[in-house]
Amino acid sequence: MNFNFRMPNYLLFGQGKLKELNKYISLYGKKFLIVCTKSRRYLTEVQNILAQENIKTIVFDKIEPNPFAEICDEGGKIAREEKVDGVIGLGGGSPIDAAKAIAVIATHTGSCWDYLFFKKSPIIKTLPIIAITTTSGTGSHMTPYAVINKKDTKEKSAIASDFCIPKIAVVDPNLMLSVSKETTIFTAFDAFAHSFESYTNLNANPLTDLVAFESIKLILENINNLIENLDNIELRTKLALADTYAGIAICNAGTTLPHAMAQPISGLNPKVAHGHSLMIVYPEFLKLNANYAKEKFIKVAQIINKNIKSASEAANVLIKFIMDFKVTMKLLDVGLGKDDINELLRQCLIFPDWKFCPKKISEEEIKLIYEKIA
Q: At a CB cut-off of 8 Å and minimum separation 6, what does 339 contact?
């Protein structure tokens, strides 16, 4: 078994841990570009903490959900011109992924879109990346992936490089108390998908199984209580831990078909939350794969119902778990339809993830799933 356990150099996890960032930040420089959304949530708190070490900051607040490569290129240009020492991603997965793309293009020529995983990997070390996550779902604070969109071609893809693993990851559940119910659901499901796909991945191993299953367990046991008690810090902490475990799992095992199918949905319509697009494709994935990873499907479903004995029962229990959130579950509901299926399929097949399911999947089966969810 070959296993390279990849993680940030420093993981600051727990309530109030943001305040400890000043103990480590100077290891990576004295001037940073902070990448965030226009809301600038928690920006003042971060700047005040950095000021304790006389850290200078420049703010780039143009990031939107499903960040565009064109905006990341603009941020990279600013990072070069200002000669910053590193990049801080402050927010959910979008600002953190954007920070990674900015860190890449700050040290490379061209556009960050030139460095997608199927094109060419970054060959020079990026600027150091600091990830301060304010949601519990994307896992980006733990991974080498920077997921970005291309505005003009309506594509969504990713940079994948160990250079993109953050040097410092800050996971402070206090920063997650302001997350809405909808975002809590979508990000939690993203974390579930990361873990479930790692757990059932052909590349899984005993160590990724360990963190992936614990992540799944934390989510299934706590998500329903959390969405009814959004200001419960203990529950937020459990989901933040689940997300962090999930990030470790995908960093070292990877995702499968649902992520390959879901990414293009947000590529064609960037307003669709990634977690939502995953929920749309998941039921058909579960039906198709349950008999090919029976023991793992059953073990997961037994977290919800200890009496589950068969793969089909397990799939049904997990589908019900998804449907009980009562979110829209058709492509039509998110502005797409049958006319988009060929393009969705084309983009999906670029991602190698679809090849690592328990069941060997054909292109025809993927197209059929898109047709069923249209």
A: none
Q: Give the pairing type, strands 155-160 and 145-150.
A: antiparallel
CB neighbour class for 75 (10 Å; exposed up to 12, middle 13-18, buried from 19): buried
Residue pair 76/101 in contact (Cβ under 8 Å)? The answer is yes
If asked whether residues 186 and 115 sit together in one domain, one would say no
Report if residue 154 sits inside a domain.
yes
Find the helix or strand (DSSP H, E) in which 7 lies.
none
b vs e for 4-38, b when ≥16 Cβ sit within 10 Å of the residue's Cβ?
A: eeebbebbbebeebbebbeebbeebeeebbbbbbe
Contact 366, 257 (CB under 8 A): yes
Q: Is 136 in the same domain as 36?
A: yes
184: closest CA among 132, 226, 216?
Answer: 226
SS3 162: helix
Helix (H, G, I), strand (E, B) or coil at 168: strand
Task: Tell me the residue type at 290.
Answer: A
In 3D space, the residue among 128, 52, 46 whose CA is nearest the CA of residue 90 turns out to be 46
Single out the residue of 277, 210, 221 nearest to residue 249, CA to CA.
Answer: 210
Range of the domain at 114: 10-176
**What would the pLDDT profile of 312-335 be if each residue is shown by its tens digit?**
999 999 999 999 999 999 999 999
For residue 159, give the CATH number of its domain.
Answer: 3.40.50.1970
- Convert the pLDDT of each residue in 51-93 to its tens digit: 999 999 999 999 999 999 999 999 999 999 999 999 999 999 9
Beta strand residue intervals within the chain, DSSP E: 10-13, 31-35, 56-60, 86-91, 129-133, 145-150, 155-160, 168-171
CA 46 to chain centroid: 22
- C-alpha closest to that of 264 among 272, 255, 252, 253: 272
Per the listing, tokens 């229990």 go with: 317
- Identity of the residue numbered 318: L
Domain end, chosen from 176, 193, 221, is at: 176
Question: 1 in a domain, yes or no?
Answer: no
Residue 48 host element (H or E) = helix 43-51
Model pTM? 0.96
